[in-house]
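Handoff note, outgoing to incoming analyst
You'll be picking up this chain. Sequence as last confirmed:
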Amino acid sequence: MSHTRVFIVHGYTASPHSHWFPWLKARLEARDIRVEVLAMPDPHHPQPAAWDAAMDSLVRDHDERTFLLGHSLGCITILRQLSRLPASR
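Most recent structure output, in case you need it:
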């Protein structure tokens, strides 16, 4: 059976250690949920193509137990990735 996975995508000028990301990661891991707070490239000068490539290499094999959680620009980045997935997903 697939394990629940949560990917947290930070936004503009942030990092995996910003805001509420570490707090939520700790709470979810305490419930045996796999969590990864992604480090997006050059958050002070984000480039859509670079962020798209990072998402595509870091978040793969989406299934019904994969959750994507974004903050700020991370939300847009998630929507961009979802729009690139095959319609059959």
